[in-house]
Amino acid sequence: MAARETDMLIVVDVQNDFCPGGALAVPDGDAVVPVVNRLSERFAHRILTQDWHPAGHSSFASSHPGKAPFETVEMPYGTQVLWPDHCVQGTGGAAFHRDLALDGAELIVRKGFRAAIDSYSAFFENDRTTPTGLAGYLRDRGFESVVLVGLATDFCVAYSALDARRLGFTTTVVTDGCRAIDLNGSLEAAMKEMATAGVEFVAAATM
């Protein structure tokens, strides 16, 4: 598939803390960077998302005495995985990977900045109702489809893809432009849920 004027490439959370050596490193996470950079040359329109947590965020295990990273707690909006402190606002871990091509990005969507609620999706907080404003931005500019790459396949990419479909956008995930955490089978579950929702999967070489 070739990129069209109505396609928006959404680059999800390619940040230092999600890459090797980071606080919440996704295995092989930095391998997406050259793939994303090549795709960026083929798209006229590009958006970046950036995890942007205040210190002491409620999704951090350190905010819950007696809890360890990757355990869960119940929040008002549902079950929340507790993470190591990561992507804290203004830190090097929250910065984009140094080799990521940033020129030409039309918008940076910062998410997870509300202390009491986590935010995986580029479109909604984890309550699935509080919007980031991205849907309105895309619609106002006439975009009909989104193509997703980045980190991590089974969390922020999947949540973004599912919300994009729920909002009526044609949605494609470039599988080799993503990497997964795969927490207790989360990758397989996310792939099945995305497929059921009508998300398309492609390899970067086909675009």
From TrEMBL:
The keyword Hydrolase applies. Belongs to the isochorismatase family. Its EC number is 3.5.1.19. Residues 8-204 form the Isochorismatase-like domain. The keyword Hydrolase applies. Keywords: Hydrolase, Metal-binding, Pyridine nucleotide biosynthesis. SUPFAM superfamilies: Isochorismatase-like hydrolases. GO terms for biological process: pyridine nucleotide biosynthetic process. This is Nicotinamidase. It comes from the Bacteria. CDD domains: nicotinamidase. The lineage of its organism: Bacteria, Pseudomonadati, Pseudomonadota, Alphaproteobacteria, Rhodospirillales. Pfam families: Isochorismatase (PF00857). Pathway: Cofactor biosynthesis; nicotinate biosynthesis; nicotinate from nicotinamide: step 1/1. One of its GO terms (molecular function) is metal ion binding.
